């Protein structure tokens, strides 16, 4: 028998805005339901292998977001196994006006440490600026060994990156944008190893007014920082995400020098 299950990605509230139906046979496996969910939400799950999502069977009123938010503590909640048939969880017609399935996306650490990549870039910054930008007590631009970001907020930003071709994130100086760039880089790499993710800072761009008007010099800077030229990046045929830190330097130089 074909049944209809109302599904909701964890954190997407209010439920009545984000819940979506999936029609599926009771004879099919939960693994097939994962595939159907992936196909139904191509934007939200664009960089996620369906095998990496976790499904929870629930029976929660679709108009009570507080209960849905704490679904793990509800007595009806049960983790679904990919190898089991749908009919094992819903042998009869599912209840109406409820959420039946909550989708848990792959979790990533909300804590990041300054790894070799960050340390190398900080050393470059120290040399280029002729002074120490990092000490035992402070770190440049909030790229902090004890930085935290909620999974819900990180997922929201990642969805914006997935839906938009160019996304501009703005916040005050020293608010953690540099740290966020590296967290996002690792987040997207973990979700989809096939996608190339590049993080670069414009802070070390020498004589921006010259480099921006000379494609070869601009490419040289990108090669030095990432191992790949700007032209190679934008002409890539494989999925690629480019995270540009200190992008305002480019806009500033364009405005001050008349560069188109």
Automatic annotation (TrEMBL):
A cellular component annotation (GO) from this entry: extracellular region
Keywords of this entry: Secreted
Entry keyword annotation includes Membrane: no
Entry's localization field: Host cell; Secreted
Keyword Ion transport attributed: no
Major place of residence: host cell
Gene3D superfamilies named among the record's database cross-references: P-loop containing nucleotide triphosphate hydrolases
Alphabetized SUPFAM superfamilies for the sequence: P-loop containing nucleoside triphosphate hydrolases
Name of the protein described by the UniProt record: Uncharacterized protein
Lineage of the species this protein comes from: Eukaryota, Fungi, Fungi incertae sedis, Mucoromycota, Glomeromycotina
